[in-house]
Amino acid sequence: IIWGKKEVQRAALLGIGLMALNQFSGINTVMYYSTTILVEAGFSQEISIWLAALCCLAQLVGVCISVASMDNAGRRPTALRSCFGVVVTLSTLAVSFYFESPLWDKIKVA
After folding, report:
1. 63 with 86: CB under 8 angstroms?
2. What confidence tier does 53 reach under pLDDT thresholds 50, 70, 90?
3. Which of 24, 15, 13, 16 is nearest to 75 (CA)?
């Protein structure tokens, strides 16, 4: 039985944990709603579609760079750089929504 080995259990749990963190980071939601987010930010529908395509292209380039550098730098440093990038990007998005959204004028936070 393969799950009885400690090495396999550790590797499987790390892999599952990384995939869960990837899903919980919310980047898939941001990518899916990127056009809507850009329209809400004030861009026209047509420009928002092009900017969303540019975001998808940037994600593709980032993934390709990560895959290419993984053999040289190793998985752990590549994963840590990726996590740092996700934190910076999502924090910037959150701050921009906080300061620019008209909804914050109507919402009272206790």
Report:
1. no
2. very high
3. 15
38, 48 in Cβ contact below 8 A?
Answer: yes
pLDDT at 103 over 70: no
Q: What is the pTM of this model?
A: 0.60
In whole angstroms, what is the distance from residue 33 CA to residue 10 CA? 35
* pLDDT (mean) for 24-34: 81
Which position has the token pair 């895959």?
A: 67
| Cα torsion angle, 19, 21, 26, 27, sign | negative
Q: Report the distance separating Cα 91 and Cα 89, nearest Å.
A: 5
